[in-house]
Amino acid sequence: MDLAFFPTTSLGCMENMDTYPREVTSEVDRGILNTSCQKSACGNMTSRTEADADVMERLEKVEKELSENRVWCANAEARLQILENNRQSTVSDLSKMQETSKLDPPYNQQQGSSLEAFSGRVTQKELEEENQKMKEKIKRLEARNHELLSKMMSMHKQSENMNDPSRLSAVLQLYEMLRLRDWEKCRKYSNNMTYKNGRSIIKKLFDTCEKDIEKRKNDIFNVLDVSSSNYTMTNCKQELMPIVTELLRNAYCQQHSDFNKKITKQANVTLENDVQKQFALQCCSVYCLMLLQESPVKAVWHTQEIHPEELEHVDKKDLSTVHWKKAELLWPVLKSGEDLVAKGVVWG
After folding, report:
1. Residue 217's closest CA among 237, 240, 244?
2. To pair with 335 at 20 to 30 A between CA atoms, which of 42, 115, 121, 268?
3. Minimal CA–CA distance to 157: which of 242, 253, 237?
């Protein structure tokens, strides 16, 4: 029977690695992958650009208001100083008049009232209160300014080069297809591909990918004679890590086929047919590119390190009705540092 095939989604710098039939199985209908969990990792670049413009506009408004308030505060302090000088001069003059005057007590009492009237205490107090309010407002605006700057820097760090075919959002799209289409095809064309067997193959491949990438990085540092033997070398290694990672990613894009075959062989997994072999190569391809991101994305397999909200059931069951700590992971939770990139999928 002839099957209609279509090309696998691939990186721009990589060849088409396999072809797969257009099939929608019952498990696909169940929706293994919750694509909403990837929203923060592969958000739309247009919305991100609009968000940048909005933050910049708000930042300019805050800075303008902050500048105006500082000018007002400086003018208020200058007015306070002038008023204080005038008050002291008036008090001094009236005091001399009071000492030298030989007028009767009623007139002296009236003179004291004049002293209080011209002392400027009421106006000065109001200005001081207003000045204090403005200082507090400036403090709040400075805090807001700092918050917006931090947000802007954070958004800049999360932005992606859309011309880079190995960017995280593109790799996550490949991972989505791997979990949905490639896994379903692998199960359909295998005699005994259970969840347990599938987990074993995926975990062995992912673990071997991590060891291979780590070894390649260490080999480069050894050539550069950079080790972690002391504090200075450790700092140097941390500074060089982004450069080394980028070099490996570029090399991987050019020689991914050789890398994947080597890793699959080292993983020592039993693969029955060509469909399973292609699935294994795709697992290596996608996960290696995740590990070679500027902020590496890594698999978490131990349920002790996973929260229930970071999981979903293969049959979309409510995890509150499942003893999730006893459930086994078919696909791991993916994290970049502490940030969730993709939910794990459990069965049981």
Report:
1. 244
2. 268
3. 242
b/e per residue 49-60 (b: at least 16 CB within 10 A): eeeeeebeeebe
73 pLDDT tier (thresholds 50, 70, 90)? confident
Helices (H) and strands (E) in the chain, counts: 9, 8
Query: 27 near 45, Cβ under 8 Å?
Result: no
Cα 21 off chain centre by? 36
DSSP 179: I
Strands 311-313 and 5-7: unpaired
DSSP assignment letter at 348:
-
Closest among 73, 83, 82 to 122, alpha carbons compared: 83
Q: Is 104 left (phi over 0), alpha (psi -120 to 50) or beta?
A: beta
Which uninterrupted H or E stretch holds 223? helix 195-223
Query: Does pTM top 0.90 for this prediction?
Result: no
**Nearest alpha-carbon partner for 207 in 302, 345, 314:** 302
**Coil, helix or strand at residue 329:** strand
Q: What is the mean pLDDT of residues 96-110?
A: 52
Q: Are 279 and 183 in contact (CB under 8 A)?
A: yes
**Residue found under tokens 């071997």:** 208
How far apart CA 172 and CA 340 sit, in angstroms, is 13
Nearest to 188 by CA among 261, 268, 265, 273: 273
3-state SS, residue 334: strand
User: Based on C-alpha coordinates, what's the Rg of the chain?
Assistant: 35
Task: Answer whether 62's CB lies under 8 Å from 148's CB.
Answer: yes
